[in-house]
């Protein structure tokens, strides 16, 4: 015995296409029913139940009960970070339809990476915070001199974030953009504020996000972001910012 971590058992858990699909569906950080997960994975209810049991036993997901429903989620941010890192080296799945290609482009454009923003939107928001002096990315992420002022403009208070045990700021390498987006307590707070303010809306059955017209205007006013000028910002759904 080497005393090293048992990567083989972890690889066996993730290395099944249905289980991988379930984990990716849960990468938005939310709690989801088994039936919703089955639909996302394209699997039967019984097969999904069997795979969820394996993931529970392996410690990659957790489950809570709400009324008559059992709600599944990733076991923690560490699992989400592992999955995001694996996506950096995993080959892309082949796309065989226009619908699939459009779905891929929309996922690249804006999505949740557990509880923070990712994709073109996530990296652009990070760049905007750096430009305005709220965040510094150098040998890791840190608060900039204008953090209190800039984050306060959208109603974010750093005091309660500092009081949490969770790391305040962290760089997370974006698997589609191949450069950092903001994670940690501040990254999560920015994403939550944008969702609560209806600047972005979740796409049903996906971790993908759509930016609303109010969100596009708000981002331009707050961070100087013009979404239409961003590389990869294409094919927006009607009524939403493109």
Concise overview:
By secondary structure, the protein is α+β, with helices and mostly antiparallel strands. Helices cover 46% and strands 17% of the residues.
Largest sheet: 3 strands, antiparallel
Mean pLDDT metric: 88
> What percentage of residues falls in helices of 4 or more residues?
40-55%
Distance between the termini: 55 Å
What is the number of helices? 11
Spatial order of strands in the largest sheet: 1-3-2
Structural class: alpha+beta
Number of separate domains: 2
Shape: globular
**Radius of gyration based on Cα positions:** 19 Å
H-E order: HHEHHEEHHEEHEEHHEEHEEH
Unreliable runs: 235-240
Q: Approximately what portion of the residues adopt beta-strand conformation?
A: 15-25%
Number of strands: 11
If you had to describe this structure to a student in words, what would you say it looks like?
The chain has 242 residues and is α+β, with helices and mostly antiparallel strands. It has 2 domains: 7-76, Arc Repressor Mutant, subunit A; 98-229, no CATH class. It has 11 helices and 11 strands. The protein has helices spanning 7-14, 17-25, 34-41, 45-57, 77-89, 98-109, 119-131, 147-152, 158-162, 184-196, 213-223, and strands spanning 32-33, 61-66, 69-74, 111-113, 116-118, 135-137, 141-143, 170-173, 180-183, 200-202, 209-211. Strands 1-3-2 form a 3-stranded antiparallel β-sheet. A two-stranded antiparallel ribbon has the order 4-5. Helix 2 crosses helix 3 (34-41) and helix 3 crosses helix 4.
């Amino acid at each position: 015995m080497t005393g090293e971590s048992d990567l083989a058992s972890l690889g066996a858990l993730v290395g099944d296409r249905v289980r991988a699909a379930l984990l990716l569906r849960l990468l938005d950080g939310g709690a989801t029913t088994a039936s919703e997960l089955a639909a996302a994975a394209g699997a039967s209810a019984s097969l999904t139940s069997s795979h969820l049991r394996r993931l529970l036993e392996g410690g990659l997901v957790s489950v809570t009960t709400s009324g008559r429903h059992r709600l599944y989620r990733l076991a923690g941010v560490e699992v989400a970070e592992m999955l995001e890192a694996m996506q950096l080296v995993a080959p892309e799945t082949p796309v065989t339809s226009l619908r699939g290609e459009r779905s891929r482009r929309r996922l690249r454009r804006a999505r949740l990476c557990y509880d923070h923003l990712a994709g073109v939107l996530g990296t652009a928001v990070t760049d905007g915070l750096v430009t305005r002096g709220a965040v510094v990315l150098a040998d890791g992420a840190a608060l900039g001199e204008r953090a209190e002022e800039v984050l306060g403009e959208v109603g974010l208070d750093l005091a309660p974030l500092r009081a949490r045990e969770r790391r305040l700021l962290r760089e997370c390498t974006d698997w589609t953009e191949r450069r950092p987006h903001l994670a940690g307590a501040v990254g999560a707070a920015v994403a939550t504020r944008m969702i609560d303010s209806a600047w972005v809306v979740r796409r049903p059955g996906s971790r993908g996000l759509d930016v609303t017209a109010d969100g596009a205007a708000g981002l331009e006013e707050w961070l100087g972001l013009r979404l239409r000028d961003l590389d990869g910002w294409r094919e927006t759904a009607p009524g939403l910012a493109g």
